[in-house]
Amino acid sequence: DADIWFSETEEEEERWCDGCGSTRVVVMRRGTDEHYMKYCNDCPFVSPAKENPLPTGLMKQKDIDEKRARKARLKARKAEAKRRAEAEKEKNAPEPDRSEEVPADYNKSEKTRMYTEEEFHDVLTQALKSGEIKWEEY
């Protein structure tokens, strides 16, 4: 995926002094410190460093995955709303005007009819008896 990428952990860490704004800071943990601290080389200011349970690359990937999941949920919700709107529209739509359509029995006599062999035999016999067809032997 184009969304997956890895970065240096320094990118997200706050690499500047909270007191003077200098970028010459050292993040470390001394024996007396409970947490990692930022020690400034330009001033005596010391502040706690930002600690994340996951590395920066994994934190960003987790954020991207959450955004993808949210987008998929929104897309599914939007599709469901569209489907419901279409169903409601069909339900409330009036019956279409079919007055100008060609009726099903229009020119029925001119249409080709398909018969099974027995039906054809019956129709032919009936037409011969009624005189519609004259049988001539050659």
Defining key terms:
3-stranded antiparallel sheet; mainly alpha; 2 helices; 37% helix; 8% strand; rod-shaped; 138 residues
Mind explaining what this structure looks like?
The chain is mostly helical. The chain has a three-stranded antiparallel β-sheet with strand order 1-2-3, with no helix packed on it. A hairpin with an 8-residue loop joins strand 1 and strand 2. It has helices at residues 56-92, 117-130; strands at 25-28, 37-40, 46-48. It is built from two helices and three strands, in the order βββαα. The chain starts with 24 loop residues before the first strand and ends in an 8-residue tail after the last helix. It is 37% helix and 8% strand.
Structure summary:
By secondary structure, this protein is mostly helical.
Mean pLDDT: 82
User: Structural class of the secondary structure composition?
Assistant: mainly alpha
Low-confidence sequence ranges:
none
Approximate shape = rod-shaped
Secondary-structure element order, as H and E?
EEEHH
Can you count the helices? 2
Overall helicity: 25-40%
Largest sheet: 3 strands, antiparallel
| Rg over alpha carbons | 42 Å
- DSSP strand (E) fraction? 5-15%
Strand order of the largest sheet: 1-2-3
**Distance between the terminal alpha carbons, to the nearest Å?**
83 Å
